[in-house]
Amino acid sequence: MNNLTPSSQNKWFYILLLILAGESVFILPFVLQRIFRPTVLETFNLTNVQQGLCFSVYGIVALVSYVIGGPIADKYAPRKLIAISLWLTALGGIVYGSFPGYNTLLVLYGYWGFTTIFLFWAPMIKATRVWGGSKSQGRAFGFLDGGRGMVGALFGLLGVLVFSLFLTNEVVEALLEERQAAFKYVIWISTFLITIVGILVWFYMKLDGDNEKDLIIKRLDSSQIKTVIKLPAVWLLMLIILCAYVGYKLTDVFSLYAKEVMLYNEVESAQIGTYLQFIRPCIGVLIGLLVDRYQTTLWLLVSFILTSLGAIMYGLGFITSSNALFFIFSILIVATGVYSARALYFAVMEKGKIPLIYTGTAVGIISLVGYTPDIFAGPAMGYLLDQSPGITGHRHVFWMMASFSILGSLAAGYYHHLYKDKAAKTK
After folding, report:
1. Pick from 38, 146, 167, 185: most CB atoms within 10 A?
2. Is the pLDDT of residue 101 over 90?
3. Which residues have CB under 8 Å from 397's CB, separation 6+?
4. Around 284, how many Cα atoms within 13 Å sit in the side-chain half-sphere?
């Protein structure tokens, strides 16, 4: 694998473009609503359940896209697939910026489920494995997820700045039409930047010489699928990613928690979502620097345990408007666990003996189960919040997070045990 990595001259520019692309593609469907959730609900006239159902449509289309897009990533150069995906996603921003009705939003999220996954997800994972080589997978995926977090945070800061600049009145006094007009500028600027990133990826995220040809298979057939599904790591990663991704999806509730439970205004609650995004790059970089020296699988287990502990604190109702500092501290605990797991669950593919050339196929199969929270997590969260308004509904959401995190701990613990035993037997 080492002979396929970018040259030292191009190495850091390669990962920088991969990081930019890795988060830019999700700005419109996910990052904006995570940071501006109260604003999105009001300006699009949505309930929590309706927003969740938009994510369900996205998830259904995405699941099909994972499976059929995975093998495609083993056939064509990652940079070309990633660039096309970015441009197609940006086109959806034109529709989103017109503030369409609920039915059109459902179609748009289905479209994004295709554009952000089919030509993007598996190529991104494969390109990251290439960058990390055989000895630096933890660093590669840690830097990728940490960098994506930084890009998301910077987009969030930019969005909050643009939103506040285009409000003609104080946020608490602004009419719905004024908030909608200000948010439109946030959408348009995001769409433009996504398009620019796609151009940069197409022309500059290249390997030296003919190395790109060594990453692709000559033809697609069923043998690669048969090879991949025989690997125990593939089946375990399905469950690990499923549990980790539920935790990640449910962090969308933090900005709404800030408004409904901590009693912050819209800008302040959006700032909480943005601060959360800044925790992610810190965790990703730290993980990237540390885990390759130790057991990546052990760190994955620890991340699930942290998420469980943080979620239980919320579930027990300890965090209220009278405990502002405790609110920030508990966010840090949950975010550390959630973002550590995100940085590590693909980093352990190397240890699980998944062949590099079949990365796309493996990612497609793993994602078929692993990313089903795109279908059910949003509606489940919306149902819990709408059925039990106030802190009670939020407590139910965090008990859901805790339950999946505990299950993830068991799966990650077995993965660690299984591959540590294998390594020992080969000595």
Report:
1. 146
2. yes
3. 250, 253, 381, 384, 385
4. 24
Give pLDDT tens digits for 174-214: 567 787 888 899 999 999 999 999 999 998 887 665 555 55
Helix (H, G, I), strand (E, B) or coil at 321: coil
Q: Could you give the angle at which helices 8-24 and 137-165 cross, rounded to 10 degrees?
A: 50
Identity of the residue numbered 176: L
Location of structure tokens 């086109």: 91
Q: What token pair was written down for 249?
A: 């999806």
- CA-to-CA distance for 193 and 212, rounded, in angstroms? 27
Question: Cα–Cα distance between 309 and 332 in angstroms, integer?
Answer: 11
Rounded CA-CA distance 424/257 in Å is: 46
Residues 146-171, mean pLDDT to the nearest whole number: 79
* DSSP calls for 352-408: TT--GGGHHHHHHHHHHHHTTHHHHHHHHHHHHHHHSTTHHHHHHHHHHHHHHHHHH
Residues found in the chain: 427
Q: Return the sign of the alpha-carbon dihedral for residues 402, 404, 410, 411.
A: negative
What are the backbone dihedrals phi and psi of residue 331, each rounded to the nearest 5 degrees, phi first?
A: -60, -40
DSSP 98-119: T---HHHHHHHHHHHHHHTTTT
- pLDDT, tens only, 45-55: 988 889 888 98
Q: Which CATH architecture has domain 7-205+221-421?
A: Up-down Bundle (1.20)
Query: What CA–CA distance (Å, rounded) separates 285 from 143?
Result: 5
- This prediction has a pTM of 0.77
- DSSP letter string over 14-66? HHHHHHHHHHHTTIIIIIHHHHSHHHHHHHTT--HHHHHHHHHHHHHHHHHHH
Q: Where do the H-state alpha helices sit in 205-323?
A: 222-229, 232-250, 253-260, 266-290, 296-315
Residues 6+ apart with CB under 8 A from 336: 279, 283, 303, 306, 310
Q: Which of 124, 141, 143, 354 is nearest to 237 (CA)?
A: 354
**Residues contacting residue 230 through CB under 8 Å, at least 6 positions apart:** none
CA 331 to chain centre: 17
- Closest to 115 in 3D by CA, of 92, 89, 90, 78: 89
* CA–centroid distance for 215 within its chain: 25
- Residues with Cβ < 8 Å from 164, sequence gap 6 or more? 171, 182, 267
Q: How crowded is residue 185: how many other Cβ atoms within 10 Å of its Cβ?
A: 15
